[in-house]
Design brief:
The chain is an all-alpha fold. It has one domain: Sodium/glucose cotransporter (Up-down Bundle). It contains 20 helices and no strands. Helix 8 runs antiparallel to helix 15, helix 9 packs across helix 15 and helix 10 crosses helix 13. The longest helix has 49 residues. It is globular, with a radius of gyration of 22 Å. It starts with a helix and ends with a helix.
Length: 490
């Protein structure tokens, strides 16, 4: 396969990071590096939310599951389409207002200001770093496997190349470079989906013929439950896992602090929903179409790369492969910058330097600013190295691990974020109890593989977390009037 388009793409990403890094505003390093100066417009905001959410699972493992299970998995994927609309519509405006009032740039800033409890902040910060690094490992594995499948290079060399490139441009570019590259990568994902979908549609002689061929192979693949392989309770669970509960995902929630104005938010809701819908439906239908066009692929995670390599000419195959590569890279860079922000801003700066804000406009702070800048770069790079070491022995099923890390974040942060924004009675006792109960119950159900009416564990876990939050909030000390004024008065 012609790798020139792919190599060009990687070089362009590095160049953009270099240019953005040279032109960024250095008056407030923390706000610039970790939230991009709150300057995102509608297109960039939409694309960065999509790119943060869409990763190896959505472009490789998800469509691979559709190849294995048929149209039923496409229906599950469609539940994810309103992600940007829900996140921005419910959290967007209020989170942006509060973020500016408290000068917050991370979810931990929000938790500290809302609940005024250091245990809530520390536990939340540690949980975020653990889950973020775990999710980065999944994406690194996906990227390395992708490079391995298209070039034939050994997995470990592909992993090293991928880690160095993504870690490099994330470390030196900061949030602004991440959002701009995310926007570009969102368009690359769109182009890649469009190309392969219509090539396969033509190769299969139209959708009607493709569906007929699938029916001849296995008619169960055309049913919503895939002949019982996708239980109905599991389908219902997805409305919580990748629907409502996405409001508890810190990587997408923190984006709500960084947009420019209300118009940008409204535009992003429309653009994000449309683009995500096209990618989700298109990519998962590609997986289903592959059943008829190239049956017999034994490892589902390799279905999409194989379909691309066997169906597209060299140059176009390179362009398509840039799509899943973009999805993976855009998820990694967001998680890495958030992990670094949590460690540097929420833990080091607050607890060691005893500072909440940092500006180089004050000459007395310049030495400290430079020190924090270096620590931020070192932290971002170190996170990449840790994830690289953990990815050396790759797990088998990326889509399952990806859902594990998503659900883990939702179990801990859904209640503190949503109730903290919209319920005056919410307090630190409620937040702490929901975080602990949510985390422990999820880990227990996951490890013990407990079957509760066939539901995904996240459903009973969110229910328990909500009950815990409500009880804790009524038992604990009411929120102060000063806090109510900051969070609930215009």
């Amino acid at each position: 396969m012609n790798l020139i388009p792919l190599l060009l793409y990687l070089v362009v990403m590095l160049y953009i990071t270099y240019r953005v890094g040279k032109n960024k505003n250095n008056n407030n390093f923390i706000e610039e590096y970790f939230i991009g100066g709150r300057s995102m417009g509608g297109v960039v905001l939409a694309m960065t939310i999509i790119a943060t959410y869409v990763g190896a699972s959505s472009f490789i493992s998800g469509p691979g599951m559709a190849y294995k299970l048929g149209l039923g998995w496409v229906l599950l994927a469609c539940i994810q389409i309103p992600t940007a609309f829900l996140t921005l519509g419910i959290l967007g405006k209020k989170m942006a207002i509060i973020g500016r009032r408290i000068n917050g740039v991370t979810i931990s800033d929000f938790l500290r200001a809302r609940y005024d409890n250091e245990l809530v902040v520390v536990l939340g910060s540690i949980a975020m770093v653990i889950f973020f690094i775990g999710a980065v490992v999944v994406q690194f594995v996906g990227g390395a496997r992708l490079l391995q499948s298209i070039s034939g290079i050994p997995y470990h060399w592909g992993l090293l190349i991928f880690v160095l490139i993504v870690t490099g441009y994330t470390t030196f570019g900061g949030f602004r470079a991440v959002t701009i590259t995310d926007a570009i990568q969102g368009f690359v994902m769109l182009l890649a989906t469009f190309i392969l979908f219509f090539v396969l549609l033509k190769k299969g002689n139209g959708m009607e013929n493709i569906i007929q061929n699938i029916a001849n192979i296995n008619p169960d693949l055309l049913t919503p439950t895939s002949g019982g392989n996708i239980p109905k309770p599991f389908i219902l669970s997805f409305w919580m896992l990748v629907g409502v509960a996405v409001l508890g995902l810190p990587p997408t929630s923190v984006r709500c602090m960084g947009f420019k104005d209300t118009k940008s938010m409204h535009n992003a809701m429309i653009i994000g929903t449309s683009v995500l819908g096209f990618i989700m439906i298109g990519m998962h239908l590609i997986g289903v179409m592959g059943i008829a066009i190239q049956p017999g692929i034994l490892i589902s995670d390799t279905a999409i790369p194989i379909l691309a390599l066997n169906s597209l000419p060299g140059v176009f195959a390179g362009i398509f492969i840039a799509g899943p590569l973009a999805a993976i890279m855009s998820t990694i860079d967001s998680l890495m910058i958030l992990s670094a922000g949590t460690i540097v801003k929420d833990l080091y700066l607050h607890y060691i330097l005893k500072m909440d804000t940092l500006s180089s406009e004050n000459n007395n702070n310049k030495i400290v600013v430079e020190k924090v800048r270096k620590i931020s770069l070192i932290t971002s790079f170190s996170i990449g190295i840790i994830a690289f070491l953990l990815a050396l022995n790759p797990p088998e099923f990326l889509v399952i691990l990806n859902l594990l890390f998503i659900a883990g974040q939702e179990a801990i942060f859904f209640c503190p974020i949503v109730f903290g924004l919209y319920w005056k009675r919410a307090n630190s006792t409620g937040a702490l109890s929901a975080m602990i109960i949510g985390f422990l119950s999820y880990i227990y159900l996951f490890i013990e593989k407990k079957d509760i009416f066939g539901l995904h564990p996240i459903v009973p876990v969110i229910f328990l977390a909500i009950i815990s939050f409500i009880i804790g909030s009524y038992v604990g000390k009411p929120t102060s009037k000063e806090k109510i004024k900051v969070f609930f008065e215009d």
